[in-house]
Write the structure tokens for this entry.
Amino acid sequence: MSLCSPAVALGTIDPEQLGAALMAGTCLAFAAYLAVRFLRPGGSKVPYPEALWALAGFFLASGLSRLLDAMATRGGAPGVLALPLPLSAGLLSLGMTVLSCAAAFALAGLLHVRRPPCDPRQLDREAAARRAAEEALRRSEAVGRKLELVASRTDDAVVVTDLHGRIEWANDSFARMTGYGPDEVLGRSPGGLLQGPETSPATVAFMRARRRAGQGFRAEVVNYAKGGRKYWLSLGVQPIRDEDGRLTHFLGVGRDVTERKAAERRMQVQHATTQLLAGGGRLDETMPKILSTIGGMLDFDAAGFWVADGGDGGRLRAGADPWVSPRMRADGAGPRSLPGEALAARVRATGGSAWVADLAAEPEGSASRPDPPLRNALVVPVTAGEGGATLGVMIFFSRGPFRCDGALLQAMTTLGRQVGIFLERDRTQAELRRVNARLRAVLDASGQVSIIATDSDGVITVFNAGAERMLGYEASEVVGKATPLLYHDEREVREHAARLSAELGTPVEGFGAFVARARRGGREVGEWTYIRKDGTRLRVLLSVAAVMDSEGQVSGYLGAAIDLSDRQRAETQLRSSESRFRRLVEANILGVVVGGIEGQITDANDAFLEMVGYTRAEMDAGLLPWDAIIPESSALRLHLCRAELWSRGRCEPVELECRHRDGRLIPLLVGAAMLDEARTPCRGAPVVAFCLDVTERRRLEDELRRQAGELSEAAARKNEFLAMLGHELRNPLAPIRNAVRIMKRRGMDDPTLVEAREVIDHQVRQLAQLVDDLLEVSRVAGGKVRLHREVVDVATVVAFALETSRPAIDEGRHRLSIAMPPEPLRVDADPVRMAQVLANLLINAAKYTPEGGSIRLSVRAEDGHVAFRVRDNGIGIPPEMLSRVFDLFAQVDQSLDRSQGGLGLGLTLVKTLVEMHGGDVCAFSQGLGTGSELVVRLPLWTAPPAEGDVPGAGGRSDAGAAGGEAGASASPSGAAGAQAAPRPRRVLVVDDNVSSAETLKILLTMEGHEAESVHDGPSALRALEDRRHEVVLMDIGLPEMDGYEVARRIRARDGSGRPLLVAVTGYAEDEARRRSREAGFDHHLVKPVDPDIILALVSSMEWSDAPLPPWDMTRSAEDFAVEELEEIRRGR
């Protein structure tokens, strides 16, 4: 390049080219001069614009030099340029020389600008600062690499966010914890990425407020991983600031604390469950709370509790209503059925909790599959402590993912044992209360023993019922207020004190006269005179002993006195009485044991030693601790008793099995308490225990069970007797009723005979009703009444009852008022049976109200029930009868005239039927002559929101069925007259009761039928062979061949003429109806039958060809009779 070659050879120069070159060189030189003219001498710093000028001059001169060099070499020969410029090579070389010099000057100026002269000390300081900065940078980079290494190796999730909370960096642990990769999180906020439906809004608001304020914070929050896993995060956030203190980033460090939270929840669940169990409520009250507490705190969706009947291995039944979580109720997905028995089998063998991870894997239709389907279940056995019997099972269900580990299974097993202990306690608590009452009765009922205890100063602390009866004082008059000196003879006390002073060599006075020997470790036994409150005197034998504390100091005295007023007893009886008395004092009727709370026995009375078979020497040698005589079967109860002593200072009586020295087990009822007044439990604290041998009680229980079985058998025999009595009473009523109908048919002119006929008719009906009531009570007592329940409007029930009871009300000329609610009320009940209940109440009111009285029936809703009130102004109920008015055969009127009659069965049926419906009945009266009110309450039925109108009574419309015979004969003329011009029938009457057969035959003949009567089974078959009878009315209990066999043979015959077979019998039992049906009878009527029904059956032959409805074997005789009549009226 020409810039590096200033020496060139000049050649021939054209004048025009020379001028142009001079002009260009001059311009370039001037430019270079301008570039360097601003350089200052002395090496001072050149301003920034001057340096730019120097740099521009250098590049300009260098560039033009290269241009001229190119022009000189153009055209293939030096000095030739392909431009129209007449320049010679010499001129070009000269120009390049000038430009080279200008470029050199410009470069020198540029270098002078870049390297100004400087102070050496300043340079040293700058070099030191630069080295320090580089060292700090290296340390910072090293620290950064170490921090990044630590963040990548820690289990905690670490993130760095900008000021707006967007993630700029996250470590690998964050990815492992959340499931999100680095590309998925950068630029997103942790809250928007990880928070879910169960994240606390309050916690989120707190974290946002602290971040916006630029402050750090710590919080625990629920997050959700990428796969949906819910976990708890303990999060710490700190602000990051630069060297100037400006906030640039946030650093967040989070740790998964799900396990800790689960452990905390388990502890909270155990604490809450323990609190509920310690409340001591009943099982049906406590178990729903326990299910709700455990299910809610452990995040389950549903739970159920099943209890085993008959102990371990028994069939499970629901022990509490199932619990459903609020979120399931909100979704409308409450379970319709939860499996209990099927899942319980998984834990009965092991006694530990079990986790069923996939309920859907159970076979289709399996009892282990809940409805609706749930995902998994935790099955918890309820056992009576560790290794105890399985008393039930708790099952908790979840419909979503649920993590169950060994710690949760162990915790739930422990809870199941606690619940089992509670269940066992609930089962025995009632028995314990009965035993306690019996124990108190044993102590207090005896009028022969007075037991009085005092403190060390002689102030009375215990004054039992025997002492009250013996002395005439109430316990409240003396306890804490008086000493035994109150009821002792003063002279006798002074004389005895003087003798003791001389004997003991120390002064004795006042109360010391009773306890001086007891203070020295002995017993004071002697005869004393008691002065009763009324001033009378009583001679007693008094034994006084000191009660010692754990330190051997006297803490009080116990005295027992027995009445010695009967001095006429024989000497042998007196010695025997004194021996029994001493044993009673020493045993206090019970075995008494003193020892430490840890279980050692330090002292015991003879009664206890006799119970267990050990000697006092063996006890003193330490061979008789509680743990040695309590077998494994009662070890848990003993442990619980000790725990209760530690917590409450006393232990409620509990039944334990104790091992006698000879190896046999004896049942003891044991109660214990701390001896010190403060009852502060500590090691070595003294405890006193009272023991009662309950072997006799168990024997009595067995005896009671045996007697209950005998009573049940007697009740069965009574029901059989009533059934037979009803049958025998019905047979003679049938001909009487038929005869009355014949007399009505014939007509009578004599008023006296008409009146006599009506009396007979009325009495027959009344006797038939009494028989029906008697048999109905037998059916109810035998559990043979089955309700046909349906949702029914109470107005329909009232209408049926009024139809039945109206004749009785009209007969008494009573005024009946009815008050019904404006809105419809419905109950879930058997309409016929409830009509019978109300009809019985109205008839009862009419029966016991004088003629012309008033009766009021009101119906209204009360506290979720429907209340039926029947009020009258009749004779009333005396106070002593109010509690017995619903008893069997109970009657208010017990006078000799028995003007009202009846067996006293109506209200007994009312009470039984109402209770079968889940209701109650009660009676109110201010006494005789004030009237009475009977109230029946039934649960009110409320229609679900989605259901429409519910039909009223539905089903049967035979309202008269509730009223027995009154309903059956409500309209005899209508029944018989409904058939226009009945065609005469050929009727065969078969009955061994000649009067019954002949009267029925006469009655049929009077109605225009052709009737024939026979009196045994073979005669009936021969009569049917001789003539074709269209209807056969036949008794069941026939001689030679019963009615069942006759019916079977008639049905077995070939032929088209099939007669209508009607059983007319006194047998009203369900078994008799069933056998009639099987034998081929078309109808089964119970004597005495209303003649209208028989005539209607005979006249309505369509019945013989129509299909018969299935028989209801739970309905009474009058139910069938009335339905027969109603169907005849409707024309079948």
Summary: Residues 119-146 form one domain. The mean pLDDT is 76.
